[in-house]
Amino acid sequence: MNSNPFSLNGKTYLVTGASSGIGAQTAISISKLGGVVVVCGRNKDKLNEVFAKLEGEGHQIIVADLYTQLEDVINNCPKINGIVYSAGITKHIPIKYIDKKNYDSVFDINYTIPVFLLDKLFKNKKIIPNSSIVFISSLASKFPFKGGTLYAGAKAALDTYCKTIALEFSHQKIRANTINPGMVKTPLLDGAEETISKEAMDEHEKSYPLGFGETTDVANLAVFLLSDASKWITGTNIIIDGGLTAGA
Ligand SMILES: NC(=O)c1ccc[n+]([C@@H]2O[C@H](COP(=O)([O-])OP(=O)(O)OC[C@H]3O[C@@H](n4cnc5c(N)ncnc54)[C@H](OP(=O)(O)O)[C@@H]3O)[C@@H](O)[C@H]2O)c1
């Protein structure tokens, strides 16, 4: 163990969704704390941009669509000390508009794929003892919104999945937690603005005592959860929301 429990020196982490938003910032923050990062995403150009911002050496890029190229990720991933699973999409789909296609698209990336990714990484012994697994879930899993059945449901399943990992792998001191953020300023939020007006979004921000979050706010929690400083924290769903639900 490092003498500085917050250090990630000598450790290697897989970050999915590393080409954008929270995942991109988390990869950069890991590298600033001395960790080596395997950055994974679909968009090669955006991954290269993130890669160029990483400090230190030994980092790796895996360009893969997790829907269709999961095997490439498993095969190219080295042995790791942890994962930040940040890949995800959000869609507003009112209950009457749910069909098999939109159900699969939202559930697959937010729940089914992380389950099978972890399954295969465990079976291939890529996740070593004392590792830390962090899923970027959502505040929506605890406080759903209209049109959020699929997204909030998938994230709620992820919240529970993390607890079962914590229970089943504690003998290897492998920890698993979710981060459940409220609104964070990322391209995902820009996507939400296609279905919710900018005015409505600005109004919503006023209900956040500390305003919407920055990607660094979430990344800082993620690197803490990866580090030995959090070695007694496992099986938790940690809300980070600028105070939105403090009075809920
Ligand atoms: N932003 C928020 O307000 C907020 C709030 C709560 C929770 N979250 C959660 O935080 C996580 C990150 O969100 P973000 O805001 O950082 O979003 P973002 O900027 O849109 O980034 C999403 C990431 O997911 C990747 N991704 C999506 N589908 C993929 C697929 N099929 N295969 C591989 N990668 C895929 C994207 O890769 P490419 O760019 O390469 O396509 C991108 O790197 C998500 O799980 C989201 O649900 C976000």
Report on this structure:
It is a single chain. The chain is an alpha/beta fold and about 250 residues long. It has a single domain, classed as Rossmann fold (3-Layer(aba) Sandwich). It contains 8 helices and 7 strands, in the order E-H-E-H-E-H-E-H-E-H-E-H-H-H-E. Helix 2 links the parallel strand 2 and strand 3. Helix 1 runs parallel beside helix 2, helix 1 packs across helix 8 and helix 4 packs parallel to helix 5. The longest helix has 24 residues. The chain is globular and about 45 Å long. The termini are far apart. The site of NADP nicotinamide-adenine-dinucleotide phosphate has 28 residues, from helix 1 and helix 6.
Main CATH class? Alpha Beta
Largest sheet: 7 strands, parallel
Task: Tell me the fraction of residues in β-strands, as a range.
Answer: 15-25%
Count of separate DSSP helical elements? 8
In percent, how helical is the residue content?
Answer: 25-40%
- Low confidence ranges: none
Find the CATH topology: Rossmann fold
Gyration radius over CA? 17 Å
Bound molecule types: NADP nicotinamide-adenine-dinucleotide phosphate
Which class do the helix and strand fractions yield? alpha/beta
Sum up the overall morphology in one term: globular
Number of strands: 7
Q: Which series of helices and strands comes N to C?
A: EHEHEHEHEHEHHHE
- Terminus-to-terminus distance: 39 Å
Strand order of the largest sheet: 3-2-1-4-5-6-7
Q: Tell me which CATH architecture applies here.
A: 3-Layer(aba) Sandwich
Count of domains? 1
Q: Give the integer mean of the pLDDT values.
A: 96
CATH superfamily: NAD(P)-binding Rossmann-like Domain
